[in-house]
Amino acid sequence: MLLKRQQNDQAGEVQNSISPGVSGDHHDTEDSSTMPGVAETLGQTADPEMQEFVNKYGDIQFEFIDAPPQNPWFTRPYALNYFHNGKLFRTRHERTSGRLELFLDLVYVGIAANLASAAIEEHTGASLGKYVLVFIPAWTIWADLKDFMNYYFNDDIIQRVFVLWILMLLVVYDNNCLFVDDLENRTPLLTSIVAYFLARASTGIIIVVYSFFIPEHRLQMRVFGLGAIIFGACWFFILLIHSIWGMVVFASLLLFIEQVHFCCNVHPWVKKNVMKLTHSTALNIEHEEERFHAFYIIALGEFLYSIVAGSPLRSGWNTNLAKGISVLVTAFMFMGIYASKDGSFKATHALRRSATTAMVFIYAHFVAIASLLIVGDAGAHLSEYEEKYLEEEDFGVLMFFHGGILIALGALTALSYADRDETPVGIHPVPKWARVGFRVPVGCLILGISWAYKSLTIVKIMWLDALFMILLTAYEFAVMNPWSHFYSPASNIALP
Fold first, then answer.
1. Does the keyword Nucleus apply (predicted)?
2. In a 10 Å sphere around its CB, with 0-12 CB exposed, 13-18 middle and 19+ buried, how is residue 256 labelled?
3. pLDDT tens, residue by residue, 76-94
């Protein structure tokens, strides 16, 4: 959820990037070459491979910066990337997920499974709303850490201890957040609030401390850090509310306010007209992509974990096993659809295209991931269902399964439209809308099957779902990778 935008008045071009969590631009007009960690690369030309790597997400002027000396005890905080005078300044090497981030993902596997399972257990509108309200704070903490690593990762002992501290707080939050609606025993609510507040406040404090070392990001780092502390503390007011609906309204408003605070802090208009910034934060798009890919895979992991943990589909060849395999197939199709995006051979990434598309990139990921967590757990629940036909009281589970598929396909469609396709005309046999436009209709068709639960067995319903997903994926693969382009002598792509 971090928005960044740099306007180049001479070229009339606008560079945008957005990412959840931390951000920072600075109003200091000091030349970038005099700032700590900036290499004397002005006028130097990058090698062709690096030029191609940086520009693969969209053409942009760039220069490299050098990191300060690395020290496992303490590395002087520095910005890995920033915009200045319409040019991107970034570290030379590709940013990939560090060991700390991968370890963080392991914790989220358990958190995701716990929250989704609780929602499916009751399969009601109330349980779905509760799932959303308790998942957003966990997502926010993950986003804060993701951006902190994106901008300031140096792997010193301070950052390692900080990540461990946040993980401890996440474990505390996850083990209490599902019981926050217990009006008789408010200990889980208080514990969840304390854990969330400490996580956000800790992030805010370390960002404010880092701001003393990083002039390029200083102003926005402090605005974000102080806001995280203040709004995190506001959660304690929910203890004064003694009704479920009152707590729901308060939590919804405060979650919304936190997002408004973030958006105001990083919105291009605010940065230009209110903060008067000349230095704008810039993220490593390759790192941002990888982090969201990792979380997406975590969501798909909920499909697989639930059908193998404890051998729930035993024993031998049976209908439960058949249903479980259909869940596996559905998850595999979702992975393929996500990886293919819109099939563009050349595109400007949503994070670089504009502020609006960058926001779509962030929030569409949230919707897709939250939906797939529900789909995976609901699919596992249906796989273990012993009856041949679904009972009416369990219809909610099927609605969660099919509704989640529809919402996830809608979010993946939005993600595909966020990138700007720059593939030469004539490469694809059909335009972009025809390549990705069948996702929502297929999702609606799958949702419609829900009302056939009295006439179709559960295994037939689930394999119909898998069949439609297979057909959708096969169609998209064919139109996104045209045979004539790869096997025609006129193709400018090397033939196999």
1. no
2. exposed
3. 888 888 777 767 777 776 6
